[in-house]
Design goal:
17 helices, about 0% strand, single chain
């Protein structure tokens, strides 16, 4: 069961990135030419499209393989498996630094090995692309930067995306609802988050308590509303921090290559050597646990993924015709990166952001689940999840409603990420 849980956590992100990358490749001229020659759909996809869309996918696979080590920290603690993840948690809690150092070394060796194999795979894939005719040379329709007046077209583009992706529009509505709940929780909650009544302990759902009460007689519905503020806020701040650090590093490293790329990627490898949750766990324990500490720790733990995915996308774009044309007319490197490459590289980053925001929400819940998240009495979904975990058989409504809220938020983030990806993709906007 623990292995199945870990496998399910990496299967969905790999599928989403594969879909995102394939959508871009399938619109190229050489794909249309292959279809015009009468090749079957399976041949077009597997022989031509898939191989040319593997760079971001290989990056995600490498990141997720090392992420299995991070997931083991939570899974082993939940299932009581005596593995290295549970040992790491116990070592951090007991300040057993020699054991923790040994665990970090093991994680670092595995991470560096995986990243080294990913870099070798990059080289093989790029070489294969260049020897397959001009498959990697995007046609002139790829020379798409954000034009003047794009801001005035954004509303119309959003309406078009809403028509083409009604599910994404529904997901956006759900996210707006969560945002409103986070802002107006004090006015929406019928009770205070810490208001307790011992006579109402562990009462089931009723008209007075829609989600029932916990073991202290606190209204679960009110605490879920207040907990939305912490979980959603942590996710937003963590994504902003990770994107602000990772996207520029990946853009600069992938564009210039050589020594610059090596130095920047070794920097990210240094952070990737420690699983994100373990790094966040260590930072939160060293610093005073608070909302800002948890959010910054999760952002620092997530930025290597942004840098790696952005770098892989830039590596695929920097030899494109429109980039070579920009060099030929004397455009400065800064303009080429910001005006031409960055807009065409943002589609997979939107997927990364939506996934990492959901991951940040889950990581905050995991930290609180382990007892090192935002300190009580502030209600957080993770702390509530830990309390309900011990009462899953006697008071199942707590975990049911709380798990439903987490599931709905993460699902909405993922579906909304797909819609934003299409909005940010110049080819889908038709400009």
């Amino acid at each position: 069961m623990p292995a199945i849980v870990l496998a399910m956590t990496i299967a969905a992100p790999i599928m989403r990135h594969t879909r995102s990358s394939l959508l871009e490749v399938l619109r190229h001229d050489y794909i249309r030419t292959a279809k015009a020659k009468g090749l079957s759909s399976s041949t077009v996809v597997f022989r031509h499209a898939l191989r040319n869309s593997l760079l971001p996918v290989v990056t995600v696979i490498g990141l997720r393989i090392t992420g299995l080590l991070e997931g083991s920290i939570i899974v082993e603690s939940m299932f009581g498996v005596p593995g290295i993840g549970r040992l790491a948690v116990n070592a951090i809690g007991a300040r057993d630094y020699p054991t923790l150092q040994a665990i970090v070394v093991v994680f670092a060796v595995i991470t560096i090995t995986v990243n080294f194999l990913v870099d070798i795979t990059y080289t093989k894939l790029i070489r294969a692309f260049r020897t397959n005719g001009k498959a990697m040379r995007q046609d002139s329709t790829m020379a798409l930067a954000f034009p003047r007046g794009f801001a005035s077209k954004r509303l119309g583009s959003s309406i078009v995306v809403a028509r083409r992706h009604p599910i994404a529009a529904v997901a956006a509505s759900v996210l707006v609802a969560f945002g409103l709940i986070a802002v107006f929780a004090p006015w929406l909650a019928p009770y205070g988050p810490t208001e307790a009544d011992g006579l109402e302990s562990l009462h089931g759902p009723s008209l007075d308590h829609l989600f029932g009460t916990d073991r202290f007689g606190r209204d679960v519905f009110s605490r879920v509303l207040y907990g939305t503020r912490v979980s959603l806020g942590v996710g937003i701040v963590a994504v902003v921090v990770a994107g602000a650090i990772g996207i520029p590093l990946g853009l600069v490293g992938g564009f210039f290559g050589g020594l610059v790329d090596s130095l920047l990627m070794r920097l990210t490898d240094t952070f990737m050597a420690i699983p994100g949750l373990l790094l966040a766990l260590s930072l939160v324990l060293v610093l005073e646990p608070s909302f800002l500490t948890v959010a910054l720790a999760l952002g620092l733990a997530a930025f290597p993924g942004y840098a790696r995915v952005m770098r892989s996308r830039v590596l695929a774009l920097r030899s494109s015709d429109f980039v070579l044309a920009a060099h030929a007319i004397g455009a400065p490197n800064s303009r080429i990166m910001v005006r031409h490459i960055l807009p065409n590289a943002m589609a997979p980053m939107i997927v990364v952001a939506s996934l990492s925001m959901g991951g940040a929400v889950l990581a905050e819940a995991g930290l609180s689940f382990l007892g090192v998240g935002v300190r009580p009495p502030t209600p957080t979904w993770g702390a509530m999840l830990w309390d309900s975990f011990a009462l899953i058989y006697t008071a199942p409504w707590q975990m049911t409603f709380l798990g439903g809220a987490i599931f709905l938020l993460i699902l909405s983030l993922n579906l909304f990420g797909d819609g934003i990806r299409d909005l940010m993709d110049p080819r889908q906007r038709g400009i």
